[in-house]
Every structure is written in structure tokens, then in C-alpha cells.
Backbone:
């Protein structure tokens, strides 16, 4: 694809394909400064998201993107590399972004706004010089290793780039992992908030960019049907699962000191838990929603290590393909005791959820890929079908299907046709793809757009992050420096046996990984 070489003029029209969704206000003009321009995140997710946003017509003609990295490169080389990358997605159905073709006008619109700056963000003079390229509104996106989050924010502060003047905003987007435990998350917040106001900080959790995760709020609070039942009077327990078939692949160096608990629980799974269990906020404003979440997180009893199970995958077969053991993966110690699977039981000490356990599980190299929330109801108060063919009915369940199935499933009993009163379990399903036209989306579109328009509802506030770390801290401490209870499971299994026992002890069982 040939690309324009001229810088964009403010009159550059939106791409021919652009069509802003009805009611969505266009984002204001802004410079998006990406630290980590040559990184994986920029290539795999941010560029496809910007391409999709350009197609939606929501970006202002004055939108610009400055990529910053230490790598010696020019704007032309950066653009060419990204263009090649975008093209490669068209023949990789497994990429996060996959489209049959790349619209040249739409990608060209993004491309002509790209500028590469080779700079060391540890060098004050270079960061100051960067500031001269940024006239008004700016978002600084830290797509860099987490150890640089605080130093980059401090450097931006010293260079005067995050001072909001003349009605212009200056915002900073921070990726995960946000800290490695409660203490480091508190310290990171302290250093960031010494430079920025909380309203300038956008801590990303990419799960919140998923339509299906946002739908949890729409479903709970946009209908009368669910909320009256959404409490301990009717709900027996809740299961939150993020099961992955992929293993650690080439990410051993990151994963070894991290593990499944830190990688997934205080962020992604807690965000799902927040959406499912928070009290109805008074409005959909960022602080009201995040305060509701905070009240819930504060009600979570610190998790007892006896309510936590860890496992690590050994060699096995996933989806018919052989998988090497975690310990054989590049960057992983041969005697590693990093967990690749974790299951936990949460207790929530508030009026609504007292007595309702929330079971969370996540793992890599499992037999099935699914992210879902299963809300299991209690049995009806009276078994009026006692003397019929139907003695025992499975409980009602509402399953919020996050991925790969997207939608909602209700499991209930219905009369089997025929002369006898015999009930069968049936599923009522809503699937996004059956009802709505779907366009390729990597989840970062909403998050970038929200940051541009100043809506922090889908971003984590400092106190939300700390409360989640506080809940898991006893488990992290109990597991540090030992392998007690770490159970090996073969790749392709549903997890370690201990995870099944965690529920069996309570007379319950996990919802099967191949259930819906
Ligand atoms: C990332 C984790 O944050 O989320 C990965 O670091 C994990 O280990 C990924 O695979 C899961 O996200 P998704 O969107 O693929 O379910």
C-alpha cells in the first residue's frame, strides 16, 4: 500500500468509510504520544484500534500520533513497518485483529498522522524537546515495561508536559501490570499521584474494553428482570472463569516472576467480579461507578490461603497439538514453581452477598478457552414435582458469555412434550452475532475513545487497584518462595485436582469447560 508522505492538514477529511455511530460525540483534537512505539502492544492492538476508530469517524482531523522509542528509526520506516503489520493481519485468523482486507483510505488517514521520534525517556532534554511538538491536548500512552511507569510519569512532570493549561487536557494511560503486590501498587500510585491528579490517570484493564464485559452493566441495570434476584436470597454461588488454551509461549521472562494470580486476578477477574457484584451506582458517571466497585472490593474478606489453589501445567495435548511443559518453555526455570493456574474462593461481607461464595479460576494450557461468569441459583423452595418423573432438577443458571461465545445463556427447566410431567434442562441463548452486525474490534477502541473524551468509567481508580491487591495479598505472601501445594496438571486438562476439591468441599462443582 502506498502511503502519503505529507503531514496531515487540519482539513484532511475523514476516510471515505467513516460513519460516526449515532449519538457518539467526536473526540477532540489531540496528540497521542505512545512510549514504546516499537513494542508489541503498539503493533498488535493500538494500531488496529486506531484504524478501527478512524473508520468510525470519531477521530478529529487534528488527531496526531507520535511514537517514541529508543530504537533508531525514521517516521517513514515506522509507518512502513506498521503498514506491513496491518497487512499481515489479513492472513492471520488467530491475530487479535483480523479483517479480510485493510481499507487503504482508512489506514492512510491514520498513517499520515504518524510521526516517529527517537528518544530516551530518561533524558530530560529529549523529553522537553518532545514537548515542543505537542501544541494542545495530549495523551501519553505508556506502552512500556511496568518498571518504567513511575520514571516516565516523573520525567513528564519534570519536563512540564503534564501541566494542563489554557483549557487543554494532559492525560496518561498506564498499562498493566500495575504493581506486583499491595505495597508496590501503593508505592506506584504514590509516585504517579505526586505528579498527576487522579483525573489525569487512565489505568487500563483491557477486559473493560470488551463489549461483553460492558454488557454486564447494561444487562443488570438496564432491565428489571435480573436485579431483584441478584442477591443471597436467590443466588447460591457465582463462578468466574478465564480459561485459556494458550500457554506461556514466548512470554516466560515476564511470566516467571508474575504467575497466574498476579497476571489475571486482581485486575481482569476482579473487574468482572466488580461488574457482576457491585451495588447499582446512582449514575453512569466514572466516579459513581468506581465508588460502587470500591465499596464491593472493600467488602471482600482477605482471601485465606486455604481458599486458594495453584497449579502448573506439564506436557500434554491442547486442541490436538502437543504442548511442552511450562518448565521447558523459554525463559522459565527448570524447577520453576510459578503457578499457571489459580482457583480462589471469595467471601463478600455485605448485606447482598453474605453467604454467597464467589469462585474465581484462571489458567493457561487448559482443555477449553472460555471466559464467563456463571451465576447459579438456589433450588426452588418446594419440589412440587416430587411424585412425578422429575425428582431432581438442575439449578437455574445465568451464564454471562464473555468469550469466545459472546452473549448470555439461561439454563432452566421446561416440560418435555408428552403426557407425563417430566422436566428437562434447556438453554435459552442470546448471541451477539445473531442479533447485531459485528465489525472487527480489539477492545482498545472504546478505551482510547473514552480517554480522548475524558470518560474514566472503564478505567481503574487508584483505590480500586489497591483494594484488589489487598484481597489477594495473604495468598501472595503464603505462596512466596515455596512450592507448597503446587500441583502439576497436564496441558489440556481442566486444571489441578485441588481446584475441583475446593468446590467439592462446599458440595459444589465447576461448570464444565465445554458446557455452552
Ligand atoms: C493479559 C495477560 O493481560 O490478558 C495474558 O497478561 C492473558 O496472560 C490475557 O493471556 C488474556 O486476555 P484476553 O483478552 O486474550 O482474554
Residues:
Amino acid at each position: 500500500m502506498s502511503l502519503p508522505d505529507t503531514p496531515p492538514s487540519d482539513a484532511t477529511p475523514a476516510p471515505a468509510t467513516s460513519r460516526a455511530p449515532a449519538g457518539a460525540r467526536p473526540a477532540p483534537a489531540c496528540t497521542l504520544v505512545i512510549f514504546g512505539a516499537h513494542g508489541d502492544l503498539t503493533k498488535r492492538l493500538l494500531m488496529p484500534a486506531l484504524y478501527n476508530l478512524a473508520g468510525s469517524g470519531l477521530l478529529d482531523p487534528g488527531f496526531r500520533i507520535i511514537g517514541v522509542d529508543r530504537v533508531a528509526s525514521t517516521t517513514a520506516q515506522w509507518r512502513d513497518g506498521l503498514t506491513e503489520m496491518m497487512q499481515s493481519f489479513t492472513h492471520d485468523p488467530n491475530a487479535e485483529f483480523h479483517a479480510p482486507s485493510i481499507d487503504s483510505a482508512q489506514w492512510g488517514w491514520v498513517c499520515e498522522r504518524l510521526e516517529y521520534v527517537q528518544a530516551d525517556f530518561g533524558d530530560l532534554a529529549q523529553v522537553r524537546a518532545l514537548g515542543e511538538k505537542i501544541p494542545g491536548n495530549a495523551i501519553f500512552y505508556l506502552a512500556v515495561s511496568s518498571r518504567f511507569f513511575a520514571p516516565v510519569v516523573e520525567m513528564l512532570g519534570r519536563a512540564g508536559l503534564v501541566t494542563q493549561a489554557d483549557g487543554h487536557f494532559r492525560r496518561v494511560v498506564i498499562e498493566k501490570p500495575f504493581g506486583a503486590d499491595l505495597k508496590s501498587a501503593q508505592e506506584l500510585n504514590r509516585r504517579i499521584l505526586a505528579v498527576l491528579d487522579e483525573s489525569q490517570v487512565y489505568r487500563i484493564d483491557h477486559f473493560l474494553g470488551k463489549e461483553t464485559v460492558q454488557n454486564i452493566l447494561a444487562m443488570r441495570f438496564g432491565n428489571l428482570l435480573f436485579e431483584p434476584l441478584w442477591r443471597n436470597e436467590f443466588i447460591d454461588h457465582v463462578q468466574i472463569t478465564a480459561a485459556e488454551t494458550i500457554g506461556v509461549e514466548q512470554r516466560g521472562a515476564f511470566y516467571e516472576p508474575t504467575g497466574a494470580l498476579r497476571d489475571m486476578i486482581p485486575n481482569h477477574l476482579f473487574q468482572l467480579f466488580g461488574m457482576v457484584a457491585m451495588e447499582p451506582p446512582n449514575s453512569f458517571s466514572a466516579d459513581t461507578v468506581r465508588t460502587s466497585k470500591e465499596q464491593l472490593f472493600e467488602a471482600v474478606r482477605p482471601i485465606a490461603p486455604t481458599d486458594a489453589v495453584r497449579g502448573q501445567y506439564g506436557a500434554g495435548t491442547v486442541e490436538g497439538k502437543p504442548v511442552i511443559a511450562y518448565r521447558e518453555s523459554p525463559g522459565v526455570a527448570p524447577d520453576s514453581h510459578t503457578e499457571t493456574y489459580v482457583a480462589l474462593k471469595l467471601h463478600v461481607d455485605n448485606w447482598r452477598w453474605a453467604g454467597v461464595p464467589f469462585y474465581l479460576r484462571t489458567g493457561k494450557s487448559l482443555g477449553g478457552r472460555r471466559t464467563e461468569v456463571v451465576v447459579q441459583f438456589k433450588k426452588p423452595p418446594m419440589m412440587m414435582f416430587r411424585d412425578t418423573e422429575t425428582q431432581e432438577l438442575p439449578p437455574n443458571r445465568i451464564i454471562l458469555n464473555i468469550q469466545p461465545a459472546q452473549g448470555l445463556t439461561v439454563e432452566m427447566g421446561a416440560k418435555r412434550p408428552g403426557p407425563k410431567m417430566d422436566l428437562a434442562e434447556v438453554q435459552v441463548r442470546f448471541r451477539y452475532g445473531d442479533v447485531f452486525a459485528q465489525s472487527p474490534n480489539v477492545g482498545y477502541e472504546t478505551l482510547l475513545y473514552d480517554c480522548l473524551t475524558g470518560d474514566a468509567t472503564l478505567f481503574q481508580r487508584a483505590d480500586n487497584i489497591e483494594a484488589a491487591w489487598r484481597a489477594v495479598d495473604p495468598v501472595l505472601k503464603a505462596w512466596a518462595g515455596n512450592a507448597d501445594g503446587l500441583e502439576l496438571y497436564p496441558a489440556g486438562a481442566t486444571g489441578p485436582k485441588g481446584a475441583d476439591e475446593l468446590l467439592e468441599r462446599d458440595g459444589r462443582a465447576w461448570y464444565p469447560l465445554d458446557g455452552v
